[in-house]
Design a protein that fits this description.
The chain has one domain (about 35-145): AhpD-like (Up-down Bundle). It is built from 7 helices and no strands. It is an all-alpha fold and about 160 residues long. Helix 1 packs antiparallel against helix 7 (about 120-145), helix 2 packs antiparallel against helix 3 and helix 2 (about 35-45) packs parallel to helix 5 (about 85-100). One of its GO terms (molecular function) is peroxiredoxin activity. This is Alkylhydroperoxidase AhpD family core domain-containing protein.
Length: about 160
């Protein structure tokens, strides 16, 4: 399977991804815990059906020390006991922020309040930015049908 468009060699695509990566760096450099970032990236990618990003973020999280058990349970986080309350709030915000069209009002006040209970303002800003960035990447990769499975941890570092 080949991608419809090579985002790694196309000049316009390279410019586009350069700016998205710059936005993502603001999140990476924030005080939002790396484990939370990894869980958010993986959950949004699962929801959006982005195989490339699911592959990448699973492998990067594992390389950063995340457990296989937690990675396997991200899709069923509500029933899992392995996530902190702060991580659960971030995952719920991710789901509502990713599935905007599924909820007439967007992200509910209850979900926002839960996230705000566990994250300071800078971490909330990082969460919002991270959810926006990963949704952009997921959509890009799904549209061009970027193949999954060959990513190596840290490949784009």
């Amino acid at each position: 399977m080949d991608a419809r468009l090579n985002f790694f060699t196309n000049p316009t695509a390279q410019k586009f991804t350069k700016y998205i990566n710059s936005a993502g760096k603001a999140v990476t450099d924030s005080s939002l815990p790396r484990a939370t970032q990894d869980l958010v990236l993986l959950r949004a990618s699962q929801i959006n059906g982005c195989g490339f990003c699911t592959d990448m973020h699973t492998k990067d999280a594992e390389a950063a020390g995340e457990t296989t058990q937690r990675l396997h349970l991200v899709a069923a986080w509500r029933e899992a006991t392995v996530f902190t309350d702060a991580e659960r709030a971030a995952l719920e915000l991710t789901e509502e922020g990713t599935r905007i069209a599924d909820a007439a009002g967007g992200v509910s006040d209850e979900v926002w309040a839960a996230a705000a209970k566990h994250h300071d303002e800078d971490q909330l800003a990082a969460l919002v930015g991270l959810i926006a960035v990963i949704n952009a990447y997921n959509r890009m990769n799904v549209i061009i049908r970027q193949p999954a499975g060959s990513y190596q941890p840290g490949q784009f570092a």
